[in-house]
Amino acid sequence: MQSKGAIKFLAILVSIICLFQLSFTIVTNRIESKAHEATNGNPEAYKAYIDSISQLTAYNLGFKKYTYQECKEREINLGLDLKGGMNVTMEVSVTDLIRNIPTILTIQC
Fold first, then answer.
1. SS3 labels along 26-61
2. What pTM, to 2 d.p., does this model score?
């Protein structure tokens, strides 16, 4: 219990680092939602809009400025499960499977 100060310091430091890394994702999501609203969902106009702002300053920390492209490169990549990815369901017909068993056995032999 003698190192309470060091533990608190490390906890605060890790929290600040996490918030810094997460801030890039927040900035890019905000810009992309504004771009989606501005283009009314048109994919070609959306791509052109994003391309046109990619070199503009999107995030200013006071001591360092980041363009949209740099923010996009630094954002946290979300997997398909976090983006509302895809679900796949496979349906197998038992009768078709039984009918094809002789074909499957002759191919393997």
1. HHHHHHHHHHHHHCCCCHHHHHHHHHHHCCCEEEEC
2. 0.64
At residue 25, the 3 state secondary structure works out as: helix
The pLDDT score that the predictor gives to residue 92 is 81
Name which of 76, 71, 75 is nearest 58 in CA terms: 71
- Tokens 């504004």 map to which residue? 34
Average pLDDT value for the chain? 85
Query: Cα(35)–Cα(45) distance, rounded to whole angstroms?
Result: 9
> Helix (H, G, I), strand (E, B), or coil: what is residue 66?
strand
DSSP 65: E
d(CA 28, CA 69): 9
The string of pLDDT tens digits covering residues 59-68 is 998 899 999 9
Cβ atoms of 56 and 12 closer than 8 Å: no
Tokens of 98: 């039984």
The domain ranges of the chain are 4-83
